[in-house]
Amino acid sequence: xxxxxxxFDKYASSEGKRNTLNKAEAAKNPDDVDKMLKGLDCxxxxxxxxxxxxxxIATMTCGAHNRFCTQW
Length: 72
What we know:
Order of helices and strands: HEHHEH
Largest sheet: 2 strands, antiparallel
Oligomer: single chain
CATH superfamily: EF-hand
Low-confidence stretches: none
Strand content: 5-15%
CATH topology: Recoverin, domain 1
Distance between the termini: 26 Å
Shape: globular
Number of strands: 2
Number of domains: 1
Structural class: mainly alpha
Number of helices: 4
């Protein structure tokens, strides 16, 4: 959990608001990042806050869990 928080804080605080990720902080490929951010931005403010970020991590974890559990 500490790594998750540190990773979010590292990127979120590089520009703009300290507690959200924006397009400039997240991307090397603006088009791909735009699609990803739109999918994560539940409240429509054009930024990803920590709660939205955690939803991404939880979804990815569940997907990975399902994939690995079917292999056993």
